[in-house]
Amino acid sequence: MTKKFFKIIIALEVISLLGFFIPLVREAGMVIFALLAFYLIYRHNEYAIYLAITELIIGSKGHLLFIELAGQIISLRIALWLIILLVWIIKVVIDIKNKKFENLQYLNNYKYFKYLFIIFLFSVVGAVNGYLKGNNLGNLINDFNAWLYFLLIFPFYYFFKNIKNEDLKEVVIAAIIWSSIKTLFLLFIFSHDSGLVVQKIYRWVRVTGVGEITKMKFGFFRIFFQSHIYQTILFFPVIFHLSSIADFQQKINQARSIFKNFDYLKIVFFLVLLWMVTILSLSRSNWLGLVIGLALLLIIFLRQRKFNEIINIAVVLSSSLFISIFLIFFVINFPIPNQSSDLDLFKTLSDRLAKSDNESAISSRWELLPAIWREIWHSPILGEGFGSTVTYKSSDPRVLERSPGGKYTTFAFEWGWLDIWLKIGFFGALIYLLTIFLIIKDGLRSEKNINNGLAVSLIILTVINFFSPYLNHPLGIGFILITTLLINREQRSCVNL
Questions:
Q1: Looking at the whole model, is its pTM more than 0.70?
Q2: 41 falls in which pLDDT band (50, 70, 90)?
Q3: Are 222 and 216 in contact (CB under 8 A)?
Q4: What is the mean pLDDT of residues 321-339?
């Protein structure tokens, strides 16, 4: 499964890159991929989930491929969303025609359905509220459309019975490996003097919405994808998996055996990629989430008296961190072609931690905070609806170019939970938090290590959402849907037993 999806991903990336230079290739590729996706999902329903999670991990904003129809941009993510829902509707109609009404009661077995559906209903109310308040229609649609991803709870659960956990894991691994390799490749390109190539690659990355590439102080380049959030939160399922391996639970003097076993080496390699991407993203939000997550894991293992596991995991994490730093240094110092000589990773990292590298961004974020609060208190219960805007003073140089006073109005905010509160109201945000709490509680109580790890990942995602919005975006919503399906499966198995 890993090799199969690796081929699919490479094909998508090649078409995307060629399509950047030749739009007809991109448009034809988009149509062909949509048709193939429909065929695969219809014949093998599990591909609905496999393709969706792959697209989230490698696609960030979802525009790796796109096509323009009647003046509207249809992205790869939207196309997949439509195809998955269409196939589900066709399957439901066939069930009704064949009088297989028992198949239509499947959501009764989905514990989290009612909670997720209530969240979606609050988002619909937010859309109606925004329209009645006269919010700009374009802003409203762009603000609300991400919440439509919640509708995939219907087909996802319907198709999930065909999913094998091992296959799902391999699909995720393939997507993470590719995203990490692409990040490393971009670091290589931008840390060497490649002239026109750099300009074209930069435009491709920006046009497809995959990420941002920024030259920092001391010559280092920040390679940041929104979807790098997956590299951060997947640390925890991997660590729980390590702790559950029987022969891993040994004394510290036997920890070296980890590096003599091929299965362990694969885990170490995966951790190296997670460390590498988390470092290169230079995302303080992700760094904070990772630190909190590791501290939480330490508390959990201490309470479970897993002292040997703590030491061994620390050895594996520190070793993989060292290897990842070495890999980064190797890439930026590779002598061919035209190695840049002014790059300093450690100075860049320390400068980033000291918050001195981009004071304008930090200042703007804190200027935004009181402005959001003022808007929230205009209608704290029902919210201001989707498309509602906040005006504040920004220090961003790009804003200052357009507005010398720094006045900036936007409907998209960094403060994720405040954004949710503003758009769908206090009770909408509260229901969302309570739903996440229920999922986390069930995940931590689970007997499966993967569910324990996913629960910790969801805690971290909830924390990160305070500073960087993910839970009002398909990246976060998709992760919640998959997490609930995995945890719900175990609970149904326990009931059946």
A1: yes
A2: very high
A3: yes
A4: 82
Q: How far apart are CA 231 and CA 179, in angstroms?
A: 9
With residue 54 as reference, give the H or E element that holds it.
Answer: helix 47-59
Asked whether the beta carbons of 135 and 390 are under 8 A apart, the reply is: no
Burial 105-131 (b: 16+ CB within 10 A, else e): eeeeebbbbebbbbbbebbebbbebbb
Q: What is the pLDDT of residues 395-447, one digit of tens each?
A: 666 666 666 666 778 888 888 899 999 999 999 999 999 999 999 999 999 88
Distance CA 288, CA 463 (A): 9
- Expressed in angstroms, the distance from the first to the final Cα of the chain is 30
Q: Could you report the per-residue pLDDT of 252-295, keeping only the tens digit for each?
A: 445 455 555 666 778 889 999 999 999 999 888 999 999 999 99
* Lookup: tokens for 169: 């894991």
Tokens of 413: 């905010």
Which residue matches tokens 């805690």? 459
Contact between 198 and 215 (Cβ < 8 Å): no
* DSSP secondary structure of 184-240: HHHHHHHTB--THHHHHHHHHHHHTTSEEEEE-GGG-EEEEEGGGHHHHHTHHHHHH
Most distant CA pair in the chain: distance in Å? Answer: 70
How far is CA 199 from its chain centroid? 26
Mean pLDDT score of the chain? 86
Nearest to 379 by CA among 428, 413, 434, 412: 428
Residue with tokens 């959501």: 107
DSSP-derived 3-state class of residue 304: coil
Bridge partners (DSSP) listed for residue 224: 212
Overall average pLDDT of the 42-56 stretch: 95
HEC profile of 332-368: HCCCCCCECCCCCHHHHHHHHHCCCCCHHHHHHHHHH
Q: Which of 473, 440, 453 is nearest to 232 (CA)?
A: 453
What is the Cα gyration radius of the chain?
A: 23
In this prediction, residue 192 carries a pLDDT of 78
Sequence-distant (6+) residues with CB within 8 A of 250 are 257, 308, 312
- What DSSP character marks residue 381? T
Residue that the structure tokens 């997670």 belong to: 274
Instruction: Supply the DSSP symbol for 46.
Output: T
14, two tokens: 């090649």
